[in-house]
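Form 7-S
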Amino acid sequence: MPDIELGQAVLYVRDLLRSRHFYTEVLGFAVRVELTAGGRPVGLALTSGRSHHELLLIEVGFDAEPVASTRRVGLAHLGCKIGDDDDALRTMHARLVAADVEVLGMVDRGVTHGLALADPDGNELELYVEVVDPQVWRRRPDLLVHPPRPLVL
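Output:
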């Protein structure tokens, strides 16, 4: 079996400046590289500091098709680990509220607790914390199939 790690995601966005603000100022990613064409920005490589970049944003303009809001094949959401306890989740929740970002839900998945939200283009995100030690869930994979429950922070 190869040593494999999911390392990056690419999102098409309508407005690069709007998405830059959301992903850097609200969520906390840093710009690693700005991609330009014809002297204007067309993409951003963003990093959490873990690798060269985990997220690439590519501007496609306001006339692009929206993200489907009904049942569909494709990506359900991107998950971003933001810490190891509910205090980190509370801090992020306050940050989202202060930035007028709608929190679509809060979920307890047993091993993780998370906040569901959408970026400015409707791409769904889950910002989560691991609340069970990895040594425990590695020995007990049954903990990963915990039915989701509402989370109260």
